[in-house]
C-alpha cells in the first residue's frame, strides 16, 4: 500500500479520535499533545504494545498512567508491524520525524525533573557606623557597608571591616542556613598619638663644637640630641677660638629640628668688647628663630671667659651671642675668678640686638685681700676695743 492509499485511513483515524475526545470528560487530550504523521525515534522503554482497538488515544492513556513515560508513538494497523496497531512508550522526548503511519503524543508542559539540592548556605547582613567600610570575609572582598543578604556556607567565618581614620574591626561569625545573621558595627575613631619627645640635629662650621642643652653636655658637632621633651630648650654651642652662641628652640613631639651655624673666629689678640662679631655674621635657619617678641643679647667682657648667668641660668662664657631672648627686662650676671662679679639689668627688644659689656679691670680686687680677711680684721678690731674698755 502506497502513501496515497493510506490517506483515507489516516483521515478516518483522526475523525475517530476527535469523536472519542468528545465522548466523555476523561480524555488524553487534556494531558497530552497529539502530533499526527509524526514519529519520535528513540527513548523507548516499552515497545510494540498491541492496541487491539486501533485507537491512538489508548496509547496516550497508557503513557499517562506511567510516571516514567514522557511521550508515546502509535503505529496504525496493517503498517510495518503487522495487522494490529502498536504503541511505544518513551522515557524522553526525542526529536520529531515525519511518518504517515504514526501518531505521537507528548505530555503537556513536561519538564525534566530537577534534583532537589538542599540549601546549605546562610545569609549575613552588615551595617556600620559610619557607613562605607570595606568588608572582607575570610580574606575575600565582599563590598562595602551597608551589605545585605550575603550568601555564605554554614560554619565559622572571619569578617573584617576597614575604613580610613577608624580602627580595624575583626570578628568571627557563625553562619546557619536556618537563622540569618545581622551584624551591626560601630567603628572606633583611630586615636593618633603624638610623641612626647623630639630631637635637635646640630651642625657647625667648623665641626667639633661642644653642645649643651639646658646646661647638660650632649657631645660635639655634628650631633643629634634625642629624647628631648616637647617644649622650649636652651642650646649652647662653644669652641675654643670661636665666639660662643646660645639660643632657645622649641621642640615638637616627633620632630627632628635642624640647627646649623657658622662659628665666628675670635681675633688673635683681645681688642676689647668691640672685637666680638655681631649676630648677623652667623647663620641659623629661619625655622629656629622667632621674629616676633624675641631679641638677641651680645654679651662680652674684658678679659674674656667670664661665666654668664641669664635670669639665674648658666649659659656659657663670654663672648657669647644669645638668641631668642624674650623681649623685656633680664638680669645678666658675669663672674670671673679674681674679680668682683657684675650684675646688670638689661632690656631686650623684639627683633633687635642688645649689647652687654663689662670691663673687669675697673673693679679689680686688692691682691691678697678679700671679704674673709676683711671680716677677720673687723672682728679683731672689735676685740681690741672691748679689752680697752675693761682697762
Describe the protein.
With 391 residues, the chain is mainly β. It has 3 domains: 3-107, Hepatocyte Growth Factor (3-Layer(bba) Sandwich), CATH 3.50.4; 121-186, Immunoglobulins (Immunoglobulin-like), CATH 2.60.40.10; 197-363, Carboxypeptidase-like, regulatory domain (Immunoglobulin-like). The chain has helices spanning 3-21, 56-65, 371-390, and strands at residues 32-40, 44-51, 71-75, 85-90, 96-107, 121-129, 134-137, 140-144, 147-153, 155-162, 169-175, 181-186, 197-205, 210-213, 216-220, 223-229, 231-239, 242-251, 256-262, 294-302, 307-310, 313-317, 320-326, 328-335, 342-348, 353-359. The strands form 6 sheets. The protein has a 7-stranded mixed β-sheet with strand order 15-14-17-18-23-20-26, with no helix packed on it. A 5-stranded antiparallel β-sheet has the order 1-5-3-4-2, covered by helices on one side. Strands 8-7-10-11 form a 4-stranded antiparallel β-sheet, with no helix packed on it. Strand 10 and strand 11 form a beta hairpin. It is rod-shaped, with a radius of gyration of 56 Å. 24% of the residues are buried. The model is unreliable at 7-16, 18-25 and 269-291 (pLDDT under 50).
What is the secondary structure topology, with strand pairs?
Blueprint: H1 3-21, E1 32-40, E2 44-51, H2 56-65, E3 71-75, E4 85-90, E5 96-107, E6 121-129, E7 134-137, E8 140-144, E9 147-153, E10 155-162, E11 169-175, E12 181-186, E13 197-205, E14 210-213, E15 216-220, E16 223-229, E17 231-239, E18 242-251, E19 256-262, E20 294-302, E21 307-310, E22 313-317, E23 320-326, E24 328-335, E25 342-348, E26 353-359, H3 371-390
Parallel strand pairs: 6-12, 13-19, 18-23, 20-26
Antiparallel strand pairs: 1-5, 2-4, 3-4, 3-5, 6-9, 7-8, 7-10, 10-11, 13-16, 14-15, 14-17, 17-18, 20-23, 21-22, 21-24, 24-25
Amino acid at each position: 500500500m502506497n502513501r496515497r492509499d493510506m490517506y483515507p485511513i489516516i483521515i478516518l483515524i483522526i475523525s475517530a479520535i476527535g469523536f472519542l475526545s468528545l465522548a466523555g470528560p476523561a480524555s488524553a487530550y487534556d494531558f497530552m499533545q497529539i502530533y499526527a504523521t509524526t514519529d519520535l525515534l528513540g527513548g523507548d522503554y516499552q515497545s510494540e504494545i498491541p492496541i487491539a482497538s486501533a485507537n491512538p488515544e489508548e496509547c496516550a492513556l497508557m503513557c499517562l498512567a506511567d510516571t516514567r513515560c514522557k511521550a508515546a508513538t502509535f503505529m496504525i494497523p496493517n503498517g510495518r508491524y503487522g495487522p494490529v496497531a502498536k504503541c511505544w512508550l518513551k522515557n524522553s522526548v526525542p526529536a520529531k520525524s515525519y511518518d504517515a503511519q504514526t501518531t505521537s503524543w507528548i505530555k503537556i508542559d513536561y519538564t525534566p525533573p530537577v534534583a532537589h539540592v538542599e540549601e546549605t548556605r546562610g545569609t549575613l547582613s552588615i551595617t556600620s557606623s559610619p557607613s562605607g567600610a570595606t568588608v572582607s570575609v575570610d580574606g575575600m572582598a565582599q563590598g562595602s557597608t551597608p551589605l545585605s543578604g550575603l550568601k555564605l556556607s554554614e560554619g565559622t567565618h572571619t569578617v573584617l571591616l576597614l575604613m580610613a581614620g577608624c580602627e580595624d574591626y575583626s570578628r568571627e561569625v557563625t553562619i546557619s542556613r536556618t537563622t540569618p545573621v545581622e551584624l551591626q558595627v560601630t567603628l572606633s575613631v583611630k586615636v593618633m598619638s603624638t610623641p612626647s619627645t623630639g630631637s635637635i640635629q646640630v651642625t657647625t662650621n667648623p665641626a667639633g663644637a661642644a653642645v649643651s642643652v639646658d646646661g647638660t653636655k650632649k657631645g660635639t658637632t655634628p650631633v643629634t640630641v634625642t629624647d628631648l621633651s616637647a617644649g622650649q630648650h636652651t642650646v649652647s654651642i662653644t669652641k675654643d677660638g670661636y665666639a660662643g652662641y646660645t639660643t632657645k628652640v622649641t621642640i615638637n613631639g616627633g620632630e627632628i629640628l635642624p640647627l646649623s651655624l657658622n662659628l665666628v673666629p675670635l681675633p688673635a689678640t683681645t681688642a676689647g668688647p668691640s672685637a666680638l662679631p655681631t649676630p648677623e655674621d652667623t647663620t641659623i635657619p629661619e625655622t629656629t628663630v622667632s621674629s616676633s617678641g624675641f631679641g638677641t643679647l651680645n654679651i662680652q667682657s674684658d678679659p674674656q671667659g667670664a661665666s654668664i648667668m641669664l635670669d639665674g641660668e648658666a649659659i656659657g662664657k663670654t663672648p657669647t651671642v644669645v638668641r631668642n631672648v624674650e623681649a623685656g627686662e633680664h638680669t645678666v650676671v658675669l663672674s670671673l675668678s679674681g674679680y668682683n662679679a657684675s650684675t646688670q639689668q638689661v632690656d631686650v627688644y623684639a627683633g633687635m640686638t642688645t649689647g652687654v659689656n663689662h670691663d673687669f679691670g675697673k673693679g679689680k680686687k686688692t691682691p691678697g685681700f678679700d671679704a674673709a680677711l676683711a671680716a677677720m680684721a673687723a672682728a679683731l678690731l672689735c676685740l681690741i676695743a672691748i679689752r680697752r674698755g675693761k682697762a
